[in-house]
Each structure stands twice: as C-alpha cells, then as structure tokens.
Amino acid sequence: xxxxxxxxxxxxxxxxxxxxxxxDKTKVGxxxxxxxxxxxxxxxxxxxxxxxxxxFGDKVETVYVENVAEGPDSxxxxxxxxxxxxxxxxxxxxxxxxxxxxxxxxxPNVKFEHATGYKRADNVSTYSARFYEGRAVQGTIAGHMTxxxxxxxxxxxxxxxxxxxxxxxxIHARKVNPDVEFKIVWAFTWFDPAKExxxxxxxxxxxxDVILQHTDSTAPQAAAQAAGNVITFGQASDMxxxxxxxxxxxxxxxxxxxxxxxxxxxxxxxxESKDTWDGIGAGMVGIGEISDAVPAEVKAEALxxxxxxxxxxxxxxxxxxxxxxxxxxxxxxxxxxxxxxxxMNFYVEGIEGDIPQ
Amino acid sequence: MxxxxxxxxxxxxxxxxxxxxxxxATMFFGxxxxxxxxKNPVEAIMTIFWEPLFGEFxxxxxxxxxxxxxxxxxxxxxxxxGFRAGIWNIGAxxxxxMGAIVGAGVGLAFYPLEAxxxxxxxxxxxxxxxxxxxxxxxxxKVRFGTNEILxxxxxxxxxxxxxxxxxxxxxxxPEGYGFPGSRNLQSWDSAHNAELFxxxxxxxxxxxxLIAVIFAYVLLNRHxxxxxxxxxxxxxxxxxxxxVNPARLILFCLGASGVLAGLAGLFExxxxxxxxxxxxxxxxxxxxxxxxFLGRLHPVxxxxxxGVMALTYIxxxxxxxxxxxxxxxxxxxxxxxxxxxxxxDLLTNYRIRLASKEVA
Lengths: 357, 360
Hints:
The structure holds two protein chains of two kinds. By secondary structure, chain A is of the alpha/beta class. Chain A has eleven helices and 14 strands. In chain A, helix 5 runs parallel beside helix 6 (160-176) and helix 5 (131-145) packs antiparallel against helix 10 (296-310). The radius of gyration of chain A is 22 Å and the shape is globular. Helix content of chain B is 69%, strand content 3%. The radius of gyration of chain B is 22 Å and the shape is globular. The two termini of chain B are 16 Å apart.
C-alpha cells in the first residue's frame, strides 16, 4: 500500500516534470547503431548532435539512444521518441531504413532523416556523404607512401558505399604508382576492435605497409603502431591520438552543418523531404590534417586533389576506367553518374579478388 | 563466523524466492549504479519497470512486451527441457538464425505468388532449419560423445556466417540497389506474420509461445518422457535403473529446443523484423538462457521471466532516451540480474549459519 502510493506519487511527479519541459522546444532525436564512444561513426553523429545543442541552446532538446539493433528494436526506439514528442528524428544506420519508413507512416507530423538509405517519403529525407572523395585523397597518399607496393584494406560489408571507397582509393593509388596492389579483408562488422585488429595484423603479415579501413574502431591504428613501419588513416573521425604516425591523415564525417541546417528548417517550418549527398565541397567530408610523416610534395599533391574535388573541377571517377572484367565503364573524360555510384557492385580493373556474394 | 551448511534437501521456499530476491537486489544495486552516474535512482528504476506497463504510452509498450518477450519465451521453453536433463544447448542463437534463413528462403522461393499455403510452409521450414542445426550437436554427442556445449555454441558463429552469406547472395533483394538484405516480407501478405489484431502485438509467434508453454507443462507433469527428463537431471543413477535411454533423451531435448528456436527465428523474420539482414540476430538465443534460469526452468516461471527481461529491454531504451543513461549501464543492469540469481541460488542448496568457533 505504502509502496504503491509512493510509486504513484513519483509517477505523477514524473509526468508533470516531462509536461513542463515539452513547451515549444524543438525536440530532436538520434538513433545510434553503436556506442557514442566508438571513436568513429556513431561518435561523429553524436558530435553533430552536440553541435545542434551548441547552436540552438535552449530552443532545442536532443535525446539519443545508442547501441540500437537494426530491426524491430530500432522501430520501437523511433516510435518511443515520436511518442515522446520529437519533431525531428535522425536514424543513423543503413539498416534502419525500413523501420524508419514504417514509423514515419504512423507519425506524419514528425520529420525523419535516414542516413545512407534510398527510401524516402513525404516526411522522410535521406542523407549521405561522398566519402569516396576522401578515398581519392587517401589513395593518392597511399600510392606514394607504400614501399612494398601492397596496400591493405579492411572492408566492413560489401555494400556499394564500401566498394565505392575501395575503387576510388585504388584508382588514385594506381595513378601515382602503377605497381601498387590492394589486399582486401572483409571484417563483416562496422565496429569490432578484436576483429579489426586481426584483419590489420593479417594484412601486415602479408606485406602491407599502408592500411586503409572502412571500419570504425581505432584497433587497426594500434596494430599498425605495434608493427612500426605501417601507416594508416583515421576513419569517420580524425583518430588524431595516433598522429603523426601511424595515422598520417583521415576522413572525417562532419554531420554538424547538415544537422544544424535541418533542425533550423524544422524550426522555420521550411523542412521538406529531399536526398542529400554532399562531399568535401559542402564540408560533409573532412580531410584530417596530413601529418609530417608524409613528404611535402606528396602532401601538396594530395591537397591539390582535395581542392579540385571541393570546387568540382575534378570528379573522383573520371574515365577512362574499365571494370574488373576488362569491359569499358567510363570513356575518356567521362564522369560517373550518381545512380551508378549509389548502387556500385563491381571492382574497377586491376583489383584482384571477388566481391563476396 | 559464517558457515555454509549443505541442506539435506534443496529448499523449495528459496527455489521460488531467489528469482524475486534477485530482481529486487538488481533494482537496488542498479539504483546505486544509476545514482553513481548522477541520475535519480528512483526515477531510473521507475522508468524501466513502471513506464512500459503503466506509463503515458503504455498502450504502445504493452504490445511491444509481447513482441520482445515471445521469442525469449519460445526459445527458453525449449532450452529448459534440455537443461532439466543436464543437456546444455547453448547454441539456440544459431538455431534461431537457421530457422529464419530456411523459413524465409522457403517463402521467398514463391515470391511474388499470393497463396494461403506459403506461410504454413515457411513455418515448417523454420522448424526444420532450427531442428537440423540442433541435430548436429545431438548426433555428434550420441555417436561420438562430443560436448554439446561447445559444438552448439561454435555452430552459432557458423550460422552467423551463413546469415551474412545469404544476405549478400542467395536471398539478397534483387531490387535493393546492391545493398545486402532480403526483400521485406512485411510488404508481402502471404508471407507476413502480421499482428492478429491491429495494435495488440499478438502475432503467430506469441500464440506459438503460449502453446509451447502449455505443452511443456503437460509434458513435464503428466507424461512419461517428462518424468524421464526430470529424473535424469535430478538423479542420473536412478534414471539409468529406470531404463531411461540417454541417446533418445539427447535427441529429443536438443531437437525440441532447435525446433522452437527455429520457429522463433521464422516468426521474427516474417513479422517484426521483416527481412533477412546481416545483423538479423540480436541475441535472443543467448538471453533466453538467462530467461530459462530466471524462470527456474519451469514453464510458468519462464513466461514471467520472459516478461521481466522484455521489460528491462524496453524500459532500458526509454531510460536511455528520457534520462540519458548510457546503454552500457542498462547492459550492466541486465547482467546484474543473472549474477544475483546465480549467487542467491546458493541459498537453495545451502543454509547460512552464524556459528561460534567450536573446539574439535
């Protein structure tokens, strides 16, 4: 009796407290696939969330849930945020695509933003970054820096985004070093320090002295540091704790400008459904500082490519490029269209091995 | 001085009381943990245990409890049969995956046909997938005396690789722009394990879980096979004299738990999850082990335990979102539950005495 009345009082207090906060603040929810402390993908999304708080202060309230499994759990978390009065919800993993669409149907007044997917609705936008532009810069540095001519690549899942990155890095490495070869290991995870460390060690044992990674932890950086003469690049976040060596540069996902712009749009009532795919130029893809471990002329060349990508005078996929099987893909001077890039499921000529099926 | 004294008989009272005490202890120490993280412990515990059941949005969360709890109960019921007889199937997660793959595969073979028999065939496929995967450790144990704990556990990782493989190849959605994952069964009526009443959370998996609970209850209490299972676990020597055939028992217990885990996988993939993806499995097969023990390996207890576990998941996510608790804290909280349960289990078999030093 005593306990129940105590609980009831507490519940009432809780209800009043939440009701009081809800008044005319814009509430923004974030659903994360990993822990905010992963140092990579989720970490950068959370930096974006913090930027929204810094920008709008008292006018926004942000909530997030981390480690949300793709599937019914994510659907429940999104529904819960919508029920709790969120105006805008960012769902930051590809696997949240169908759940996002399902929940969006039930809450037509809530705006949804799904990262890296292709399904949209009146209240669902999609956004992604042209990470392959960053890979072009990486590939250029990698091609110059490798002495063994073997570049190791840790892939996560063989999806278009990752394949695009491998192709872009390879094309640009070959451009500056015709003898370079790529060895690709598929980790089948986005974040698993133990598996990523194993993959890096295997690649190093096979002679790789440059490791590129499309997974989110810093474990490959640590493995390279232990090996000594191997260089790496930060992925998703700067990973500057491993600079200047082994980490010589990085691709940084900078979601802050986009998150701020979209939150602003909801506040102003100007939000509408669209597909955003921004690169270096718009600031969604950042190139972390190229460290002194890289010779000055290589650094200058890499920065020149970065600038050309940023101002649009150069496209990372500019022909002539052939597919792995030797067939023609892009003619001389032709650039890849977004549709082909979005669904890319083939290697370019020169990469060995098959994409896992 | 504290002395542990072995009870002549395991205590019935403590056997019933430990799960409850374990939940209470978890609430208390969980509260201490949340307080250490700078959150109001009462509010946090309330959010986890009260909010989903009686909070403002309980109309949504209550059905979610069924969706989250059903696979746990279904798998745990199967596991409990073997656990009672000392047959340790640790690989339900793998059987769950294989049930989903085979069941979804059977369904997708008919795509885009609309016919009433597709879903029943998928159910059979799901059961078969789980059963076959459980038969591997069963037959190896019967034939070669291998350890079923190791074999069934290792097969989980094999199943995960198969899941990745079919997501990227065999079952990949041809209209998915090259992304991994199968077609979404939710948008195909003949294969969709939809809610039986809209908004109720009741889908065929929930119904099957309830039927499994009743069957397990009858089996254990009214049937010779159930008696043999209990006897083997409680008094292996007596079981031998009573003429229990251990090989038959191993095949039955592992087979039954495989079938139920496979069914859970099928109902999940055809219903709440909707599609085969690389990350389809979220650990139900492992959590079900906790549920089985928390429920004292008793069918009714397992239903209650499944409810409590589902509650901590759903309430845990609410607490993350509303109170900003890190997900790691929720996981520690869930881990505490098993820890206290196992620790307090000591009281079932031992009694604690405060004894003065005696002179020998």
